[in-house]
Design goal:
This protein is an alpha/beta fold. It folds into two domains: 277 residues, FAD/NAD(P)-binding domain; 102 residues, D-Amino Acid Oxidase, Chain A, domain 2 (2-Layer Sandwich). 34% of the residues lie in helices and 25% in strands. It has twelve helices and 17 strands. The strands form four sheets. A seven-stranded mixed beta sheet has the order 5-4-13-14-15-12-16, sandwiched between helices. Strands 7-2-1-11-17 form a five-stranded parallel beta sheet. Helix 1 runs parallel beside helix 9. The chain starts with a strand and ends in a 10-residue tail after the last helix. The structure holds flavin-adenine dinucleotide. The site of flavin-adenine dinucleotide has 32 residues, from helix 1, strand 3 and helix 9.
């Protein structure tokens, strides 16, 4: 079995490591951070990634820690008028073979880290920021800022949006600012006055922005992501804190439920991420080196599929390694079977931005009146099972 080096212990790197180790591969993950951690924010996992979590024996944990939203509800930003509602929980599972769950990112990350460590206790090497790599017929060598060197047969760049591996392979991916800043807040539910939002996935849409609200951690927390059009470009980062007053001002005039969430949030915990667009790339790897997750297909969050795609990647990569006769063919098989799907998701996410930010209430009413969200619209997306899809 080849020895596999993974750069990055994010959701993608950890899920891939467990899939690979479960199939018998030797894996080492090198993570730049001094400790494994994820930010305080929500994440949605749909059926297409849930299959993989179940395969890793984590399905029950996901259901225990997460919330299954009853419905997807699209509302106007100020009056709250419902433009469209479709069922999510039982229907999603019946149609796509696994549940749709909303979780705290830290819970998902901890679960994946514990799984990987249960398969190999020292699988994650912290404080290793990968700087560069070389490869030849005999293997691949990864070098780190701390002077360490790791040798293996395969290198997977799961090192996120600003991937060093991707940069060495293909150069920096040009990024264009979308015009949107994404605020995030997580609020303990007991702080929120009654009546509270229903336990559904609520999307409030207004000209110039939209807000997504859903519950986490068995319903004890409410996650708020407020996306607003702004010329004030800041960092592409989960950890950039901005004044709460700015958040409050951005959502002035929005529905009372949105005001309550903002008012009940910790005033020093308003974070904002400037969202950038990157066109999908059609070539990911070279030789013994490939990409996975955001390093391969950075995406906007408007379809909630970035981490989901990263988890799918790990399952398909593992299968490809079991099918092809040599490493290069296996990595090509993986890439060939992932590029079109992930590019389609990235493009669909970009399209959703236009849908959620239509210029007038009438345009929103028209768009949602003609929209068939339920049955088939997203079948291609959610009915994909990375464990069973034919690899060609
Ligand atoms: C506002 C917002 C909401 C989102 N909501 C959802 C959602 O609901 N559902 C969903 O599926 N996705 C969602 N996403 C997308 C999702 O967060 C990402 O797609 C996902 O985290 C990508 O995982 P990853 O492991 O590829 O990268 P990352 O999570 O970025 O992990 C990369 C890891 O690599 C490490 N690293 C980086 N450089 C190096 C290096 N040189 N050497 C070693 N280690 C390195 C980092 O420290 C990190 O641990 C959202 C994104 C945003 C911005």
């Amino acid at each position: 079995m080849p020895k596999i080096i993974i750069a990055g212990a994010g959701l993608g790197g950890l899920a891939a490591a467990s899939c690979l180790m479960q199939a018998g591969h030797e894996v080492e993950i090198y993570e730049q951070a001094p400790a494994l951690a994820e930010v305080g924010a929500g994440i949605q996992i749909s059926a297409n990634a849930f299959h993989v979590m179940r395969h890793l024996g984590l399905g029950d944990d996901l259901l225990r820690l997460g919330v299954r939203p009853g419905a997807y509800v699209f509302r106007l930003h100020d009056t709250g008028e419902v433009l469209q509602r479709f069922s999510l929980s039982a229907e999603h599972e019946a149609q796509h073979g696994a549940p749709y769950v909303q979780l705290h990112r830290a819970d998902l990350h901890e679960l994946l880290a514990a799984k990987a460590r249960s398969l190999k206790s020292d699988v994650v090497r912290l404080n290793h920021r990968m700087a560069s790599f070389t490869q030849n017929a005999a293997g691949v060598e990864a070098r780190f800022d701390n002077g360490a060197v790791a040798r293996g047969d395969i290198l997977i760049g799961a090192d996120g949006l600003k991937s060093v591996v991707r940069r060495q392979l293909w150069g920096d991916a040009p990024a264009t600012y979308t015009g949107d800043g994404a605020w995030r807040l997580v609020v303990p539910v007991e702080r929120l006055p009654e009546p509270r939002l229903d336990p559904v996935m609520s999307v409030f849409m207004g000209p110039g922005g939209h807000a997504v609200c859903y519950y986490l951690r068995s319903g004890s927390l409410l996650n708020f992501v407020g996306i607003i059009e702004t010329d004030d470009i800041s960092e592409e980062s989960w950890t950039l804190r901005l004044p709460w007053e700015k958040l409050k001002a951005d959502f002035a005039g929005w529905h009372p439920a949105i005001q309550q969430i903002i008012d009940c949030g910790d005033k020093d915990q308003a974070f904002r991420w400037s969202l950038h667009n990157r066109a999908p790339i059609r070539a990911w790897g070279q030789g013994r080196v490939t990409l996975l997750g955001d390093s391969a297909h950075p995406t906007l969050p408007y379809l909630a599929q970035g981490a989901v795609m990263a988890i799918e990647d790990g399952a398909v990569l593992t299968r490809a390694l079991g099918m092809a006769g040599n490493i290069e063919d296996a990595l090509k098989l993986y890439e060939r079977n992932r590029v079109e799907r992930t590019a389609r998701i990235v493009e669909q996410s970009t399209f959703n931005r236009a849908l959620f930010h239509l210029p007038s209430v009438q345009a929103m009413r028209d768009a949602f009146a003609n929209r068939n969200e339920g049955e088939d619209r997203n079948a291609w997306l959610y009915s994909y099972n990375p464990l069973t899809v034919e690899l060609v």
